[in-house]
Write a structure and sequence with these properties.
Distance between the termini: 47 Å
Radius of gyration: 19 Å
Structural class: alpha/beta
Order of helices and strands: HHHHHEHEHHEHEHHE
Shape: globular
Helix content: 40-55%
Number of helices: 11
C-alpha cells in the first residue's frame, strides 16, 4: 500500500495529522495539479457549495459568471451546456471542445459549469491553480515564464474569448499558442475554448498546425459547436 492510502486510512481513524503527513498530502495535491498520474491521491474531500464557489473563483472564473450558479435557480439546458455535458463523457482522445458564437449564448457559463463539475479536492483542500484564462492573458505570458509550463500541465484548461487577442506581426502569440495546444494535445489534457469566431474565421486566423491539433479530438466525440440559441436567459 502506498504512502497516501496509509494516510487516508489514518485520517479516517483519527482527526490528528502530523505536520509531515500534511506536507505529503499537500505534495499529492501539487502532483495532481501538475498532471502527474498517481492513483494513490485521495479524493474524499466533502466540499460544500461555498467551498466550490471559492475554489472556482481562485481558478479564475469571473464573479459575474459564478453568480449564475449561486442565485438558487437551475441553469437552462442551452446547446453549449449540452455540449459540455457530452464532453464530460467522451474518451480522453476527445481532448478539446470549442464553443463558438456571439455574446449571450452561454459559452462561458457552460465552460465554467465544466470546471465546477470537475472541481475535486484531497483531504484538506480544493484546487487553487488558475484554470480559467482569457486569450488576452495568455498573450501576455512569456514563453520563458513558469505560467506557460503550468498551462501545459494542468489537467483542465479553459481559454475564454480566443479571437479577441492582438496578434503581433512577429507571430509571438501564435507561436506561444501553438506550443500550448501541441503540449495539451500530446498529453490528452482536457481543454475548452470559447470564441466569437465561426469555424472558417477560426481556421483563417490560426495556422494549420493549431487547427489540425484541435480537430484531432473531434473524431472521438468532441466538437466545434457554433451556438445558435443566443440572447436567451441562461436560467431555467
Amino acid at each position: 500500500m502506498g504512502t497516501l492510502p496509509v494516510l487516508q486510512n489514518l485520517v479516517k481513524q483519527t482527526s490528528r495529522i502530523s505536520e509531515i503527513e500534511r506536507k505529503v498530502l499537500a505534495f499529492g495535491e501539487i502532483a495532481k495539479e501538475s498532471g502527474w498520474m498517481c492513483d494513490d491521491i485521495p479524493q474524499n474531500y466533502n466540499a460544500n457549495e461555498a467551498d466550490i464557489e471559492s475554489s472556482i473563483k481562485q481558478q479564475g472564473v469571473p464573479e459575474r459568471i459564478i453568480s449564475t450558479f449561486t442565485n438558487g435557480s437551475k441553469l437552462k439546458k442551452t446547446s453549449a451546456l449540452k455540449a459540455v455535458e457530452k464532453f464530460m463523457t467522451t474518451p480522453r482522445e476527445a481532448w478539446c471542445l470549442v464553443l463558438s458564437g456571439p455574446k449571450g449564448c452561454g459559452k462561458s457559463t457552460a465552460a465554467a459549469h465544466y470546471l465546477m463539475k470537475n472541481t475535486h479536492g484531497t483531504i484538506e483542500s480544493l484546487p487553487k491553480t488558475q484554470r480559467w484564462w482569457t486569450s488576452a492573458n495568455i498573450s501576455r505570458v512569456s514563453s520563458y515564464r513558469e505560467e506557460l509550463e503550468s498551462l501545459m500541465r494542468i489537467p483542465i484548461l479553459v481559454i475564454d474569448d480566443l479571437g479577441v487577442e492582438y496578434i503581433d506581426k512577429n507571430g509571438f502569440f501564435l507561436s506561444r499558442l501553438d506550443e500550448l495546444i501541441d503540449a495539451r494535445w500530446g498529453n490528452f489534457k482536457r481543454t475548452i475554448i470559447t470564441t466569437n469566431l465561426n469555424r472558417k474565421d477560426f481556421q483563417d486566423r490560426y495556422d494549420q498546425r493549431i487547427t489540425d491539433r484541435i480537430r484531432q479530438g473531434f473524431k472521438d466525440g468532441a466538437d466545434y459547436l457554433e451556438v445558435t440559441d443566443c440572447n436567451k436567459s441562461l436560467r431555467a
